[in-house]
Design brief:
InterPro entries: ADH-like_C (IPR013149), ADH-like_N (IPR013154), ER (IPR020843), GroES-like_sf (IPR011032), NAD(P)-bd_dom_sf (IPR036291), QOR-like (IPR047618), Quin_OxRdtase/zeta-crystal_CS (IPR002364). Pfam families: ADH_N, ADH_zinc_N. Keywords: NADP, Oxidoreductase. The structure is a single chain. This protein is an alpha/beta fold. The chain has 2 domains: about 180 residues, Alpha-Beta Complex (Quinone Oxidoreductase, Chain A, domain 1); about 120 residues, Rossmann fold (3-Layer(aba) Sandwich). About 30% of the residues lie in helices and about 25% in strands. The protein contains 9 helices and 16 strands. Strands 3, 5, 6, 7, 8, 15 and 16 form a 7-stranded mixed β-sheet that branches. The chain has a 6-stranded parallel β-sheet with strand order 11-10-9-12-13-14, with helices on both faces. The protein has a 3-stranded antiparallel β-sheet with strand order 2-1-4, with no helix packed on it. About 45% of the residues are buried. The mean pLDDT is about 95.
Length: about 325
């Protein structure tokens, strides 16, 4: 018997149910894995609430790490016993075991344990496409990263710093400010205490930053635009505070011919070659010893509802892992 967290309707954390499920054998092109750890991400709350609709009933979850239990016909890249991890692809990671397409899996390097693998895949691959492809950070750039003490934030801050950028981060508390500084932030702004735009302008001699990475959404959108230099880029990649409302594109002209993009990871790994390239960048950066994954919370998978409550209440920092 295998168990999973499923939803039969959208809503708050209370809709998450711990239920018995049938896994079965992998179909051609699939593998079955037994999870050792599952990652928790803000997108899970969007899907649970209905902001990002899923066919119901559904098993949530974007990433996990574990061991291959069985391989389907035509699968040659993986074998039983392989240590693997994944992010993206079909949702359904909140479970003890599952079948999924082999092409979304990555072999987990021996130096990376399962919990780290589950914690780093979605946030790490997201950081890889944001910093190396959406806007390619260069030495000398000044970047602004919102939610700098979050899972993506801590990885992105370390990576941007290693690339030679000056890193400005926003956080909500002094504790999170210290955490951000420990992970590459040169300057930290505590929102609610300081005017983000005024502080950024002061730190950049009035010029503004080259790029803003904004996973917060509605609450920071206008300030993010006002923090940019002329022809700077706003990368809005999340909605932690709610979706950005419609606006007149002429605003981008008025604020300095700005660039705006709303990317998602799936569009940067539409082919296996793209996924492998992103993974090579992530695993390669981790191999330098300059990337440290902070797993600051763990929960039993059966307690996923409490994990969602804590995440949405901003009581978490770094990465969170669910243990089947």
């Amino acid at each position: 018997m295998s168990f999973a967290i499923r939803i039969h309707q959208t809503g708050g954390p209370e809709v998450l149910r711990w239920e018995a499920v049938t896994v079965g054998d992998p179909a051609p092109g699939e593998v079955r894995i037994r999870h050792e750890a599952v990652g928790l991400n803000f997108i899970d709350t969007y899907q649970r609430s209905g902001l990002y609709p899923l066919p119901l009933p559904a098993v949530l979850g974007q990433e996990g790490a574990g061991v291959v239990e069985a391989v389907g016909e035509g699968v040659s890249e993986f074998k039983v016993g392989d240590r693997v991890a994944y992010a993206g692809g079909p949702v359904g990671a909140y479970c003890q075991a599952r079948c999924l397409p082999a092409w979304v899996l990555l072999k987990l390097p021996d130096r990376i344990d399962f919990r780290t693998g589950a914690a780093m895949m979605l946030q790490g691959l997201t950081s890889a496409y944001l910093l190396r492809h959406t806007y390619r950070v260069q030495p000398g750039d000044t970047v602004l990263i919102h939610a700098a003490a979050g899972g993506v934030g801590l990885i992105a801050c370390q990576w941007a710093k290693a690339l030679g950028a000056t890193v400005i981060g926003t956080v909500s508390t002094e504790f999170k400010a210290d955490l951000a500084r420990q992970h590459g932030c040169d300057h930290v702004i505590i929102h609610g205490r300081e005017d983000i735009v005024a502080r950024v302008r002061a730190l950049t001699d009035g010029v503004g930053v080259s790029v803003v990475y904004d996973g917060v959404g509605k609450a920071t959108f206008m300030a993010s635009l006002d923090c940019l230099r002329r022809r700077g880029m706003l990368v809005t990649f999340g909605n932690a505070s709610g979706a950005v409302p419609p606006f007149d594109p002429l605003l981008l002209t008025q604020k300095g011919s700005l660039f705006l993009t709303r990317p998602k990871l799936a569009d940067y790994m539409t082919q296996r070659s793209e996924l492998l390239a992103l993974a090579d960048e992530l695993f390669g950066f981790m191999a330098t010893g300059k990337l440290h994954i902070r797993i600051n919370q763990t929960y039993a998978l059966a307690d996923a509802a409490q994990a969602h409550r804590d995440l949405e209440a901003r009581r978490t920092t770094g990465s969170t892992v669910l243990l089947p």
